[in-house]
Amino acid sequence: MRSAMKAGFSLVSLTVAMLAGLPATAMAETTVLRDFTLIDGTGKAPAANQALVMTDGRIKWVGPVAKLKAPAGAKVERLKGKYLMPGLIDSHVHLGLVDGITQNLQYQTPENIEKQLRTYAAYGVTTVQTLGTEKDMIFPIQQRRKGRAAMSRVYTVGQGVVFKGSYGGVAGLDQSVATPEEARAMVDREAAKGADLIKLWVDDEFGMLEERMPPPISSAVIDQAHKDGKKAVAHIFYYSNAAELTREGVDAFAHSVRDRAVDDALLGQMKARGVWQMAATLSREASFTYKTLPFLDDPFFARGVTPAVLKELASPERAAKLGAAPNFPKYAPTLQYAMDNFAAEAKAGIRYGMGTDSGPTARFPGYFAHWELELMVKAGVTPMQAITAATSANAEFMGARDIGAVAPGKWADLLVLDRDPTADIRNTRAIDAVYIAGNKVPTIWQTCTGRAADACGPRP
Ligand SMILES: [Zn+2]
Fold this sequence. Notes:
Blueprint: H1 2-19, E1 30-38, E2 47-55, E3 58-64, E4 75-78, E5 83-86, E6 88-93, E7 98-99, E8 102-103, H2 110-122, E9 125-130, H3 138-143, E10 153-156, E11 162-163, E12 176-177, H4 180-193, E13 198-201, H5 215-227, E14 232-235, H6 239-248, E15 252-253, H7 264-273, E16 276-277, H8 282-288, H9 299-302, H10 307-314, H11 316-324, H12 331-348, H13 367-379, H14 383-398, E17 414-417, E18 431-436, E19 439-441
Parallel strand pairs: 1-4, 1-5, 6-9, 9-10, 11-12, 13-14, 14-15, 15-16
Antiparallel strand pairs: 1-2, 2-3, 5-17, 7-8, 17-18, 18-19
InterPro entries: Amidohydro-rel, Metal-dep_hydrolase_composite, Metal_Hydrolase, Metallo-dep_Hydrolase
GO molecular function, one term: hydrolase activity, acting on carbon-nitrogen (but not peptide) bonds
Organism: Sphingobium indicum (strain DSM 16413 / CCM 7287 / MTCC 6362 / UT26 / NBRC 101211 / UT26S) (Sphingobium japonicum)
């Protein structure tokens, strides 16, 4: 029945095209990109002299230029010397929490969320997965990923589950539970709203809070998520919780173990049960170690924020305040554990994605994804492995079948680079163009936030 209907429609389209005196291909919007080196997102070695045909936002064909059959009437773009890869996916973000670097849930409006999704897109992050601090306004925005929006696609957990009195969530959003029954009910509620997966927090902020989510609650969350056909991902900090959650059947960690080194026992259990390190959030941990962030003069960063934010970030008062915080000395060893443990997991064959935890104050949309890739490579994986984590691996974990690779049938969410990112991971910043569903969107090099369009000067 379905295919009969499809055939009927295309017959109608053909007839309309013939009546209008146009070739049938003119009905669709087709673009050909050619002469680039392809990094397809699957980990396959880069291939030179490639071409791609995209129609109505989807990739129709990809292969060597020698085999290209450009459809009549297609727009052709020559990308000689450029590198083409899938748009990046950030598997751990929070949307609409800040205005500048002032954090308050009052800033969570559809307009502010859209502004941030355009910033992600400008940095080549064409899909984000939000992890648990979004009001229900996120669900209509999530639905837009089915079409051709000019901003990043959204996957979401809706609201994550917090154990009453413990760490997690954001002020102003009531998302805490006290019993396994309440936890199961909350999971069902988020699943019914359309959550793509379920999130839980198991932490106590360096022991500053009295509670951590106990096993009867976490196991109820994980079990109910699975009953609802959803994966469960956990915010963790401690080795002991990582081990317990692994026993309980958690699907992934949204941060790495940061209180000690992981060992063969935990790595073996994670591997046996297929637990992913979905996000290692190395950029998050690194950002905490600075009193003044080290990239304020980097135009790739500065273009994405207003001059007022830059000034605030550079202020000696801010540096003094951050340096005096009681937890400040703990951040450097925490980062080191995160780096070492991520490297150990990768080496042990545990699957991993790429995620930053950007969105809260001073953790910047888009820029942090490029910093994260750099830190992953610094920790010990190859640039190609980091790129694969941020594209096809993230898509695989998220069950996002139509993104994450340059292949027929996928959305044409693409990143075009001036230089080879497999030679130097920092070349992901050499952004020439970003496509979402086949449409070019403004890149960060065409952006100058809070200033006149030309005030940031030309692209370096
Ligand atoms: Zn987070």
